């Protein structure tokens, strides 16, 4: 079985897995990192949204063999560490706006939100509804209105 080395939430890990094993299963089943959720497995629902090298991606669609030792994966578990706090400002905004219902989609929603705000900053764009329309994460509970409120509030503290 091939081995694969990369960074997850600030730590270097080495796992044994087929090259084609999707990273979502490596995270969840081999590494016990279960914040990224399984919804569709085909890069559509975005429940598994995490970051790779600071950008949003969907680990259900990435084979572990595509990662290199320099690649840095961040999941919801590692998000607070990126700002040196117990909670990331976007997570605090989520709590203040009481966004979650069942909660299943919410780790992916928060990771997508942080990546989108960072992307907007790089591109000099406003955090407005046109920008938020680009977030495609599905929420079966329909929490979209509060998600948007929370992203705007969280962005102000990022
Ligand atoms: S489980 Fe990854 S996008 Fe749906
Ligand atoms: S809170 Fe239930 S799916 Fe989004």
Average pLDDT reading: 97
Specify the overall morphology: globular
> What is the CA-atom radius of gyration, in angstroms?
15 Å
CATH topology call of the largest domain: DNA polymerase, domain 1
CATH architecture of the largest domain: Orthogonal Bundle
Weakly predicted, low-confidence segments: none
Structure ligands: FE2/S2 (inorganic) cluster
Helix tally equals 5
The largest sheet, given as strand count, sense and whether it forms a barrel, is: 5 strands, mixed
Spatial strand arrangement across the major sheet: 2-1-5-3-4
Tell how many strands the DSSP assignment holds: 5
Class of secondary structure makeup: alpha+beta
**Percent range for helical residues?**
25-40%
CATH class of the largest domain, named Mainly Alpha
* Amino-to-carboxy terminus distance: 42 Å
CATH superfamily placement of the largest domain: [2Fe-2S]-binding domain
* Order of SSEs: EEHEEEHHHH
What is the total number of structural domains?
2
Beta-strand content: 5-15%
Domain 2Fe-2S ferredoxin-type: 2-79
InterPro entries: 2Fe-2S-bd, 2Fe-2S-bd_dom_sf, 2Fe-2S_ferredoxin-like_sf, 2Fe-2S_ferredoxin-type, Beta-grasp_dom_sf, Diverse_Oxidoreductases
EC number: 1.3.99.16
GO molecular function, one term: isoquinoline 1-oxidoreductase activity
Essential attributes:
globular; 13% strand; Isoquinoline 1-oxidoreductase alpha subunit; five-stranded mixed beta sheet; DNA polymerase, domain 1; 158 residues; Ubiquitin-like (UB roll); single chain; iron-sulfur; 2 iron, 2 sulfur cluster binding; binds FE2/S2 (inorganic) cluster; alpha+beta; 2 domains
């Amino acid at each position: 079985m091939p081995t694969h080395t990369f960074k997850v939430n600030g730590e270097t890990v080495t796992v044994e897995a087929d090259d084609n094993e999707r990273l979502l299963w490596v995270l969840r089943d081999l590494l016990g990192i279960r914040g990224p959720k399984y919804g569709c497995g085909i890069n559509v629902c975005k429940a598994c949204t995490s970051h790779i090298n600071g950008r949003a991606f969907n680990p259900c669609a990435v084979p572990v063999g595509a990662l290199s030792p320099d690649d840095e994966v961040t999941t919801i578990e590692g998000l607070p560490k990126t700002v040196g706090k117990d909670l990331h400002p976007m997570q605090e905004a989520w709590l203040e706006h009481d966004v979650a219902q069942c909660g299943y989609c919410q780790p992916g929603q928060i990771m997508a939100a942080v990546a989108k705000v960072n992307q907007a900053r790089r591109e000099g764009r406003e955090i407005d509804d046109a920008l938020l329309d680009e977030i495609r994460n599905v929420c079966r509970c329909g929490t979209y209105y509060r998600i948007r409120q929370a992203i705007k509030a969280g962005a102000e503290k990022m």
